[in-house]
Amino acid sequence: MRERRTWHTLDVKAVLEELQGDQQGLTDVEAARRLAVDGPNVLQEGRRTSAWALLAAQLKNVLIVILLLAAGASALLGHALEAGTIGVIVLFAMLLGFVQELRAERAMEALRNMAAPQARVLRAGQERSVPARELVPGDVVLLRAGDRVPADARLLEAVNLQVDEAALTGESAPVTKHTRKLEDAALTVGDRKNMVFGGTAATYGRGRALAVATGMQTELGQIARMLQTIDTAKTPLQQTLDRVGRALARAAFAVVAVIVVLGLIRGQPLLEMVLFGIALAVAVVPEALPAVVTISLALGVQRMAKRNALMRRLPAVETLGSTSVICSDKTGTLTRDEMAVRRAAVAGRVLDVEGVGYGPAGGFRIDGAAVPAPEPLRRLARAAALCSDARVVKEGDAWTVQGDPTEGALVTLAAKAGEDRAALEATWPRVDEIPFTSESKRMTTLHRGREGLIAFGKGAPEVIVESCARMVTEAGDVALDAAARERVLGQARALADQALRVLAVAEKPSAQGREDAAREMTLLGLVGMMDPPRAEAAEAVARCKSAGIRPVMITGDHPATARAVARELGILKEGRVVTGVELDALGEQALRDEIEQVEVFARVSPAHKLRVVQALQEHGHVVAMTGDGVNDAPALKKADIGIAMGVTGTDVSKEAAAMMLTDDNFASIVSAIEEGRGIFANIKKYLTYLLSSNLGEILVMAGAALLGMPLPLSAVQILYVNLASDGLPALALSVDPPEDDLMRRRPRDPRASLFSRPVVGLILIGGAWSALVNLSVFAWALRSGRGLPESMSMTFMTLVLIQFVKAYNFRSDRRSVFHRPFANRWLNLAIAWELLLLLALLYVPTLERAFGTFPLTGVDWLVIGLAALSVSPVLELVKWLERRGWLGGNEPSRDDRLSLALRGGHARGGAR
Length: 912
Hints:
Rossmann fold, Calcium-transporting ATPase, cytoplasmic transduction domain A, alpha+beta, eleven-stranded mixed sheet
């Protein structure tokens, strides 16, 4: 295993000496020896967990274990249908978790697939094609446009070589490479211009490079190692449900023990009391909870898909609702990933260029006023378009570029100025060219016109201006003196300070040939271009901030570009911009101290992104991280919700992420967060309603036992109440329409319990009132001369109806039941269906005998109806007190024992 070095700081000779290499390549014998020492050039697989082990791990879920016990208890009681239903729910929940964990390992497989299958190398002076896995440090690799780079390598030769490193660095434009050594050892991957890296691709030119790192020692290998060591954390909801499951397990055991002991003391048969206690314990356990959660998440996933967000892991849907920070990439997510000319400086004036993308729509403005394209601008646009090789074409409704995006922006500028590319080429056909090189920093083309040869040039302002003797002004073409040169270069610097990529454009009307073409030209002006922000991104950023979500830009692009885009979108206000080099200088504690003040991270590496995510999580944030490249994969996997780009994203980033955007649009993230908040709110409604209902059932039975009364419900009636309240009404609550102020609330604190004091108040008071009312009805019925079976029948009906009334009250834990009371049509249908079933239980003889019910009189119905409705004003009073803050805030006090029992402690929901 070779030590990792800062190879970019060494010159070619030193690198060859260090690796004992040769410009003509290694011999086959030496290559074989090194292969035995360094190992194959492949990404190693981490330790894999067997499929059986993954499946068995699902049984560690407390709720799953409880449900299995509930299924067994139901079978013992002779309720085969309920036992089978619970069994199906358990199987479904286990398979869902198993499939998700199995798919999570595909990120590594996708990463391995990025390796080039073949590599062209020099071996003893002969060009050979060898399997990429056999490449070793010291091999001389040959690169041409279109080749996948097989390993990390130091360039020995670079002829107009450009490499697309977007997957590794996040930079949108290909990087021009050279062979000169670089002095700064701390340069990030994106700034090591004399290196090429495995997994990237050559797009232009050719080169030779000396392999310096293979396999897991490459930058790609470091990412693979990070992926192998990152564990996916449970979502806040999963942790909450685990705590609820443990609390319910303790409650179920206590219920069985109390009921059995009290029954035995009163002289009731042991077997009867054991079966009755088991039935009540089954009532405590929410059999439908996994199904409700899964259905809520699945329906939410369908709605998200319509809003361009595809979820790969169901539990991550809920995490979106808790998101407090979005770390967003710049290129393609906040911006369009399309270069466009934003400003043009011609004849002493600066024009703003309107329009987005590569389409020809867009005009020009001077000081905010719309103007037609002036002739000096048309002249510049003609020259820039003719001195470009890119083509802009319309595919369907979209305009796309074929070729270099920068040149595509120049062709689009010409179209906006009214200059047709095809007509220009017909008038001035190209006859020769001097291509762009990293040394010349310019491109020059020669064209034949009516008056002979004409040359057009574009390139770096300092290079083009130096080659010009004249310049265009409003008064015509004038001599370009030293003062005018400095003014033009100052204007170029001013445009560059606005994060624009600046090019100068020139022409020579009477060129004599290649040797004469680039001398004494006429400067036509400057153009400043950039990848513009998406029109909808600024609005989405504003929505984030109103919802208490902090957007942070984290990109591999240049700090000046990142700063300008972040300011335009409203991300950067009073915070800081920190570069990858500055991050390296910060220790872990210093980063944690600074992280809340940083709004933009620029020029960052994969390790930097991972550190940022970890630092934010340590501050208690639920972090969403976007990305499209291989470099983003570790941070995507570590983040609470990793979001990959569906259009530009690599397979590695998609497999590492929990969510994928089909339109690569930041605004779609905000829409998905809204859905996530709604889903969590509905699961909370269901769980709150369920626990209050189950608490009412337990207290009715326990209260009767403590008061020495007969048991008010039979085992079969308890099971039916449980099935009715956990069934369709609860499922309907899980698809309740979202409240209209959802995105004006702050994110749910991942450290806070789902069971805040108001929620606990609703659960306790709702359950206690239900028990009080039902015991009162039972006692009244007994005193009125009704027999025990009839009194049990009335109590049974009251208990079911009071839970139906509570279903409407629990649609919100803060708003009145009279706010859009019947907006949930599924709840309305569920209650109507359940009422029909209740009538069947009362008036169908066969069902009467099975459930021990009796037909009710008018007086019975009046008593039952008033008793059931009485819970609504009680719960409304609790909400009213909560809205006025009279319940003491959102968190229960530490000495509130029942609240803490429900919460299972105050552990941080997002603990890593």
